What does this fold into?
Amino acid sequence: MFSNHSANHVTTEQTQLYSHLKRLSRPKGKLFRRCTKVGLSAGIVTGMILSTLSSVSPTYAANDGQASPGSTLDRAVSRSSSGSSPVSSVTSNTAQKLHYTQVEGGYYYTVALRSDGSVWTWGRNLLGELGISDTIRYRHTSGPVRIPQLSDVTAISTTGEGYSVAVQADGTVWQWGAGRAPSQVSGITNAKRLTAGSFTSAALLRDGTVQTWRTPPLKLPNTVNEDAGKKLMLHRISGLKNVVQTTLFGYDGYALKKDGSVWTWKEADEADGLPSKAKPIKGLTNITFITSKGGPLMALDSKGRVWRLDVQGKRVPYHHELKVKKLDASSNYVLLVTTKGEVYSFGNTVTGKQGKIKQLSDITHVSAGYYHSLALSSDGNVWGWGGDKYQEAGAPATSPGGMVYIPVQAKLGTDIYVNGKLLQSIYPAVETSETLQLPIKTIALALGATFEVHTADGLISHYTLKYNDRIIAIKPNELQYTVSTLNKLDPQEEQVIALHEPIGNYSGATTAPYDMLQGLGLNVTWDRSAARVTIDEVN
It folds into this structure.
């Protein structure tokens, strides 16, 4: 089930790859229900593989004139050699200022919100799950991808099936996935939080009321977008005020009010139907958090006790031996975070093991993806474990079966600035153990440079990068490149400059070590602590 995919390329996957998406019949009504579940395999691979993480020193600069012909650029590289648990790693995103504030896991993908309001995704992009394009088919990402044009985001939510939403600081709502590129949800201008649902989605407004809309149906490639141009129908849920949280399961909606009471309503399964008036759920008082993501409603009370509603609607205690502060659930398992910051997993877990995740501590938030689990620590780091064949856990799999048994730390994601402007790229900068690899074709386009691939006998012989009067030539798998000038009035000898890594291919893009760009006479700086690489012309 969790077979490894080693191909680092973009591929066009044919329609049969969507055969795992099953449509469920509606309990009532004639409209065709959108996909609510993605086929889940029953087998769970077990075992224990230890993952070791390395961290690169904070700031590197590659400026023109630093390297002489044939020399190796001097860079300090530090690695953590302690055998401590991942969360106690010396690498701290708090010290880096930028950090993750929210993380959500789905079917082979992850969505994360960063403290600067940017949204980052990783994993598989089959139907626009990563928010970068509804036509690009990522087999997997080698680093976090920033969703272009989406900024000032304060909260995110995903159905887990590919559809995600985000709210910006100005109260507007954006959606992507399910075969669609990012777009604004019209008509909502004062949202505070969001809940993406399989059939309907909900916006908690700043005045404590709730509005819902029908989640767009799944759109497969090369099919007509039937809902394009249609006016979005928004419904305000009657009977709700002073709401602080919402959750959805199917056509059932739930709201947690400021006074600790929980209310429920029914969404209409007909396109022109209206939702029912909300009513309180008996037996649930002093509640601080709710979720119905995995099916039956689960509620956390002010004493740290978790309750689950049974089929009769009665509350049933759930692991009351634990004092809990946060929880999340999928259709197969539940994640609990105790007041001590420890994580417990119960049910058909992503690793086949139940109980305490011993390698995690000081956790504030968890997300139960379909095949992988995620945790957010108080220092803003994201940790992933479970199924990882598309690197949805945040790092390469640590077992031959495409699994991660010991939580691995996801990278922060690196912004690329070219001449002071943020580069909007569907391909990420990828941090390796030695350097930072950049999508060179996208960089060249932003610079106004020319990047060419040269072949001989059907194989790549070398690459060239031309900018102003300079030209770089580099061969595949070589740890050096040559620089020559095209200015015949000021001829210069050809320079040979060493690299720590050769030109590569990550996440479907041809990439080059960031410092190779110095050969073009540019100022190039990678500030790891700020998660930023800057490429500027020399004044």
Remarks:
- The two ends are 55 Å apart (CA to CA).
